[in-house]
Amino acid sequence: MTSLNTNKAEFIKSAASASDFIRSEIPAIVFSGKSNVGKSSVINRLLCRKNFARVGQSPGKTIHVNYFLIDEKAYFVDLPGYGYAKVSRSEKERWGKLMESFFAAEGLITLGVMIVDSRHKPTADDVTMAQWFAAAECPLVIVANKADKLKKSEIEPNLALIRTTLSLPYEVPVVLFSAEKGTGRDALMTEILKYV
Ligand code: GDP
């Protein structure tokens, strides 16, 4: 199986509009999730870094698509977080335009990685995001993050609720994850490596 040397990770660019999106033969692993779900922490955990993708930046402030090149074999594409209540209407519009242009373009997504909070029912915004990935017809993996906050008895029902709320087809895996503890890191990397 292919491997990814996560020590070789570099920031490439922030794209603020469609003309800046990277079109390449190199597979694009596209990360999405609502603000504060732990998207940066998941990426950092995958890369065994502390502060590579920024953590805890003020939610909703960065409306960019960030590109990282990993081992010259894959782009990790960090979509701007969504669903933060306190952003202005103009920021929401900017987010919507940028995401519409991203999902409308062909061939920008090799694999979608959608991060949700394992403690809660996915939000309406999460459902919309899952529909965008479905419409893009790309393979998708769901990451149920913050699993360290779950009781053991909550795991199965919560994963089932995520699956039904997002109307996931059976082939879409849901990976129980804790960016904090490292749970699920290898399972998620295995899913990603199928496309690298
Ligand atoms: P982002 O806005 O989605 O990029 O989220 P961040 O990565 O900045 O994380 C938001 C907050 O959630 C931070 O305080 C993180 O420390 C925390 N966090 C992220 N992942 C986990 C996790 O797996 N478990 C717990 N308990 N907290 C987490």
Average predicted local confidence, pLDDT: 93
**Chemical compounds bound to the protein:** guanosine-5'-diphosphate
Euclidean distance between termini CA atoms: 9 Å
User: How big is the Rg?
Assistant: 16 Å
Order of helices and strands: EEHEEHEHEHEH
Backbone structural class: alpha/beta
Q: Approximately how much beta-strand content do the residues carry?
A: 15-25%
How many strands, which pairing sense, and closed or not: the largest β-sheet?
A: 7 strands, mixed
Structural notes for this entry:
- Helix 4 links the parallel strand 6 (140-145) and strand 7 (174-176).
- The radius of gyration is 16 Å and the shape is globular.
- The mean pLDDT is 93.
- A seven-stranded mixed sheet has the order 1-3-4-2-5-6-7, with helices on both faces.
- It is an alpha/beta fold and 196 residues long.
- Helix content is 31%, strand content 20%.
What would a concise description of this structure say?
This protein is α/β, with parallel strands linked by helices and 196 residues long.
Give keywords.
alpha/beta, 31% helix, binds guanosine-5'-diphosphate, seven-stranded mixed β-sheet, single chain, 7 strands, 196 residues
Q: Could you give the topology of this structure?
A:
Blueprint: E1 9-15, E2 28-33, H1 39-46, E3 65-70, E4 74-78, H2 89-104, E5 111-117, H3 124-136, E6 140-145, H4 152-165, E7 174-176, H5 185-193
Parallel strand pairs: 2-4, 2-5, 5-6, 6-7
Antiparallel strand pairs: 1-3, 3-4
The structure holds guanosine-5'-diphosphate.
Guanosine-5'-diphosphate (GDP) is lined by residues 33, 35-41, 55-56, 59, 81, 145-146, 148-149, 178-180.
